[in-house]
Design a protein that fits this description.
By secondary structure, the chain is an all-alpha fold. The chain is built from 25 helices and no strands. The chain has one domain.
């Protein structure tokens, strides 16, 4: 991990082999639980799932200890690649465990594949709104179980157009198929691995760092079992970094604009990418125009649908809060202070505004100084995305995946610990079924984040120069 990618592979290969095998067996055991999480299954084994995923995280972290600096031979490299692929395929068969976001993806894909606007009508209106196109009603009759299981069916889709294209591709491959969606995710994942390979070579870093990304058990569960879309971001994120490191910052800005077609947060990386262009105004202007044009073209259809009470984007930005730590303290503190003035209801909104300002300030501060070398850009990008995640009101386990490609380039140990700690989130489902969700929200959640915050502070104090 950070500062510890040392040692030779001769003495490490045996440990890597056994840790990889233990990781595979643990994830296979977790995958075997999937049928017991089907929509109509009683008493899903939540505690067993959380325990197995935490154990898998432990084996993963053990495998990363002291990754070798040298090159990989054919045998170790094949083991790295084939094991990661096998872990992914093992999760293909079963139903998603404790997650149902994929129903929205399947619905949006069907709507987009029909040539309809996925941002115009909430799924709940497909059969109820007389103004809705008849094609929507036909889709609802094709897959009633998909429609009835969509989360928040009264809200329009919040997923930008690149996501919609991926959803539609899966529908084109096989309508209403979770397997087809998983294959689309695998394609994006494999492309991300190839780009990481290029970046590691470019930066002179050991290829063993690919294991940070390719073996991560949380990614395997959240993407290939749950069907979350986070890996769609990575080809654009890594492509932008690779272009920037090869001196093509203008094109990097354009590729970063494409990333906004998956999620909005990559826009925060723009100051980091463009910092070296401050001394070259013409190229800076070209980069800004390209980024602005690409992102505006992609986001126009999403925003043109309206930012009203049916907008999923508005609902998410204004109300979503789950599994958070720092934001919870800020929101509670502001609520208490404002309560003294009889305005406690403004606490959450003010907390969101201050958090957004803090993340933006963090992005600008990281971009303030010139880059110290090629490795400086991905390191600053990691610190930025880590700050975004740790301050966010929504710290879902799959949002943590945003950090993984960057952790492969700079494996900061406290951030890697989250792989083994975040599966505690699933205990919330077990507690919620017993009316004790608040116990998780206010107390157990700190078991996840306190070690990480403490580790980051300790590591910062040890090596401030590497963080600046």
């Amino acid at each position: 991990m950070a500062g510890s990618l040392g040692g030779s592979f001769g003495g490490y290969w045996r440990l890597w082999w056994w840790c990889g095998l233990a990781l595979a067996l643990t994830l296979l055991a977790a995958a075997a639980l999937a049928p017991r999480f089907a929509a109509d299954a009683p008493a899903p084994p939540i505690l067993a799932l959380a325990a197995l995923l935490m154990l898998a995280g432990g084996f993963y972290l053990w495998a990363l200890r002291g990754l070798p600096q040298g090159g990989l031979g054919a045998g170790p490299l094949a083991w790295l690649l084939l094991l990661g692929l096998g872990l992914r395929l093992a999760m293909f068969a079963g139903p998603p465990m404790l997650e149902n976001d994929h129903y929205r993806f399947l619905w949006d894909g069907a709507v987009t594949a029909q040539g309809l606007n996925p941002y115009r009508y909430p799924p709940g209106q497909a059969q109820q709104d007389p103004a809705a196109p008849p094609e929507l009603g036909a889709l609802a009759r094709q897959a009633p179980r998909v429609l009835e299981r969509i989360n928040y069916p009264h809200l329009r889709s919040l997923y930008p157009p690149v996501c919609q294209a991926a959803f539609a591709l899966a529908h084109w491959l096989n309508p209403w198929s979770l397997l087809a969606w998983r294959l689309v995710l695998l394609a994006a994942d494999a492309l991300s691995l190839l780009l990481l390979w290029r970046l590691l070579r470019r930066l002179g870093l050991p290829l063993a760092g690919l294991a940070v990304y390719w073996w991560n058990p949380l990614l395997v569960k959240e993407v290939y079992n749950s069907g979350h879309l986070e890996v769609l971001i990575f080809p654009f994120l890594l492509g932008a970094l690779l272009l920037a490191l090869t001196g093509r910052r203008v094109w990097a800005a354009g590729v970063l604009g494409l990333a906004l077609g998956v999620k909005l947060w990559p826009g925060l990386l723009l100051p980091l990418l463009l910092r070296p262009l401050l001394a070259r105004p013409a190229r800076l202007a070209a980069a800004l125009v390209l980024f602005g044009g690409v992102s505006a073209a992609l986001l126009w259809t999403l925003l043109a649908a309206g930012l009203d009470e049916e907008s999923g984007l508005v609902a998410y930005a204004g109300r979503w809060q789950m599994n958070d730590s720092a934001f919870m303290l800020l929101s509670a503190g502001l609520g208490w202070l404002l309560g003294l003035a009889g305005a406690a209801g403004w606490g959450p909104a003010l907390a969101r505004g201050l958090t957004a300002a803090a993340v933006l300030a963090w992005a600008l501060w990281l971009a303030w100084r010139d880059e110290a070398g090629p490795a400086d850009l991905p390191r600053r990008a990691l610190l930025l995305v880590a700050g975004l995640f740790l301050l966010s009101p929504t710290q879902f386990p799959w949002y943590y995946l945003w950090l993984l490609p960057l952790l492969a380039l700079w494996p900061l140990a406290p951030l890697l610990w989250l792989t083994a700690l975040l599966p505690l989130y699933y205990l919330r489902f077990w507690l919620a079924a017993r009316g004790q969700a608040a116990f998780y929200d206010h107390w157990l959640v700190w078991i996840i984040y306190l070690p990480v915050w403490a580790g980051l502070v300790w590591q910062w104090r040890r090596g401030r120069r590497a963080w600046s």
